[in-house]
Amino acid sequence: MRSWSSSATPWQVAAWLLFALAAWLPLAPLLRGFVDPEALAFLTDPRRLGLLGRTLWMSGAAAALSVVLGATYAVLCVRVRFPGARLLESLLPLPLFLPPLLLAQAWFGLAELRGPWAAVFTLGVAAAPLPGLLAARSLRKQRASAHEAALLLGPWFAAREMLRTAMPAALLGGLLAFVIAASDFAVPDYFAVQQPLFHVYAMEVFGHSRSASYAAGAAAALPLVMLGLIGLGLALRLQRGMRAAEVGGGRAPKAFHPRPFGTSVATFVAFALATLLVFLPLGRLIWETGNTGPLDPRSWAQVSADAFGQVFERARGDFLSSLRFSALAALIVLVASPFWAHLLLRSEQTGSRARRIAGRVLGAAVALPLLVPAVALGFGAILTLDKPWLRFFYDSPWLPAMLLAGRYGPIAIFLLLERLRAVPDAQEESALIGGASYPARLFRYRLGPQAGGWVLAASLVFIFSMRELDLNILVSPMNASASVRYYNALHFARDNFVAACSLVLCVVLWLPMALASSWSSLRGRTPA
Amino acid sequence: MASIGSAVLRSGILALSLAACAPAPDLVVYCSLDQEFAEVLIAAFERESGLRVNAQFDVERNKTVGMVQRLIAERAHPRADVFWNNEIAQTIRLKNLGLTSAFSPPTAAAIPAEFRDAESHWHGFAARARVILYRTDRNQPAPTTFDQMLEPAFAERGGLAKPLTGTTLTHFTVLGTMRGRDAALDWIRRAESAGLRWGSGNADVMRNVARGDFDWCMTDTDDAAKAIQDGHPVAIHYLQQEGPGSGTLLIPNTVCVLEGAPHRAAAERFVSWLLRPETEAMLAAASSRQIPLLAGAEAPAGVGIPGRDFTTLKVDWNAVAAALETREQEFRALLVQ
Lengths: 528, 337
Known about the structure:
The complex is a heterodimer. Chain A is mostly helical. Chain A has two domains: 1-33 and 324-478, Orthogonal Bundle (MetI-like fold); 36-281, MetI-like (MetI-like fold, Orthogonal Bundle). Chain A contains 25 helices and no strands.
């Protein structure tokens, strides 16, 4: 039998060279910060340990909340038949398009929330689409036969089987939510107004990143990186324990059609969740576009129209620029992430202990660009790539695309890894025996049944690339971007403009997804 | 699979067609002023000079590291020609790191001596003042001096930004240079026990006053002007800082030509164009109400003029810049708990 690796080697080498260039090379100058004795001081200082402890519980609580909200939303929309389910499902990604700080301001305006739990709630709500989208994807791939067999044993068995299918993906979403919450200090800082103040560790990383020594920021980030790696290890272990086999090509279970009372309850809960995640914050933002003081002679509609007019006049070019970089980054990830994920998958499946350990080390190294602060990646890009002989590349749109692909590629890799695991190995092995080439085995037999997850992975890279701020400040061609535009306006209190800008961004990003979903639905296909 | 492959191909072609490179600029300006105003001025300069400017903007507070760190990182191969900073201490920090170069524009002599570098590495213009913004509908007094903010009658009804970044960090560093480090740290401790509230930035505390959550706040004139412009029932008075050289703290924009600027001649032309009374008048007339510093610059009604409407606090800016990083670490250790 041919070895899988001999035909895969050239493809794998090319894909990993790209990852090294996009993600590891810019990190190289910062790595010395990790081995700096100063980095150890961060782990022994009581004040910083206190901040780290608070980060752990706040981010953990936010991640747990995001899993509960997101997974419940996904189960209701995908597996229960009630009026409006398809519409609500298409709205789920919307909170991801908004910076968490805007959501914090919206929720303060709505409910005057304050204190650490306000930050937990905001970060949980902001990240809920991650476990939600991933769980929805898995639920659609559950085998109808498994579901129906469980149903014969009773509804609780069916529910348990459904959870077993959704939880690995939801856990991965929860881990991403944890990483995002742990690196966010703007939201806790916003809510920390009165004594006792409750700051988080990321504030310390931000403070050290302002030092003239770039390694200081990386050294300060080490504890957060370690927390992220521990979380990743736990999530992967739990995922392996809960693995539920799926196959492509088979039919998906039909959505559950409850009795009238059950339909009413499901409809109520789903709309209540949508109100919490989408309608209230977006409604507040719409109101904010025209919000002004009582002495302003202009009407709400005039102020709002002015704000939207300014967005189209001033921010159009920045939006296009962000869309271009993000689309390129998503394209790179779309092409390369299957190779990256497949190698990690094979390293899990190998019989050799040494190779399994090497696979885990590789997994940790893959996660690194996502776990370090974006400023570290930005400084690294300047230090390694801003050379006179590389100007043609540094000033081209490919540098931003590559950096964004390197930064957010790990999201796609771990998502695809979880998806590829769900495809029985026998499919790929049969193709290998049949003499299929490596790309054919990977793309047709492994990825084919998971094409929706593949597109979702690239879509998440696109969304996070659109949200990126720190890299956009530091790397020259990325500066003209939507995020710099609205964060600059936010800093200078142009709240009407910021609200209008974020709503336009939501529509621009959401509309194609909603249209694609509607088109798939009309053609009777499962949407991505 | 075929349809996905086709979609990928189509999106790839679209992305590639969108990825065309822009032509090389004649001048690169790093700017931390409000993008809305800076863009208008830079566009006017482009029209007048015929030069193509690549302007890069900053978001210092929400929540990134900013242009100053980028300039430091790029020092081996400078990309920027001009740094237009909306404050002063970080510009002096760049000078002390050897990242700025001397250039004296024609209007340099019209700038007050305390707002320009003795060696002509940087020049100040269009300032913001530190003021008290208060609600006019509450019939409650607001503090008029720096230390009054700590009095119980005021403290529990107002707030200020945490002195960790921006002009509030600069303000508290000024306090440290004038009264001593321990006095500055003690002020923060007393503020905590007095119940004074801390916002995440000057715009944030301004919003709290506009909404009515606070009766007053300490902020900058540009944020205060925004609240007034938006029609909130608020007004300002200039904050007097006691002690030697008592008065209101003014924090100017600063502009400098960078060491190793790739387009030196264009950089000098831009700085000379910027440091004119006409430019200051434009910034004063804009909604941010920047305070002109150049002799002869006109200001509309509502813009406070130093010497006429308030006394300016005398500050040793070099000492402030030298102490900035250390003070920031000390304030962070105190507040970030």
